[in-house]
Amino acid sequence: MIAVFKDMVKLYETHLTLDHVNFEIEKSEIIGLLEANGAGKTMIMKVFMGLVLIDSGEIILFNEDKKRNENYIKID
């Protein structure tokens, strides 16, 4: 498993950007994010890259819990 996102919630100012989002990415899997404008696609990518921390939920990248990793960058 490359990535697991469980019950991700992210508030941006007063807007609920990610509302209990769940998905997994397996090795050798190709994914795409298709949704309407303002649905949270960019926020998911920022979370995946470690640029933004979620308010609640769980992120596991390469078997490492990123929500509790001090090296995870926060710039929001």
From TrEMBL:
Keywords: ATP-binding, Nucleotide-binding, Transport. GO terms for molecular function: ATP binding; ATP hydrolysis activity. InterPro entries: ABC_transporter-like_ATP-bd (IPR003439), ABC_transporter_ATP-binding (IPR050763), P-loop_NTPase (IPR027417). Residues 18-68 form the ABC transporter domain. Belongs to the ABC transporter superfamily. This is ATP-binding cassette domain-containing protein. It comes from Anaerosalibacter massiliensis.
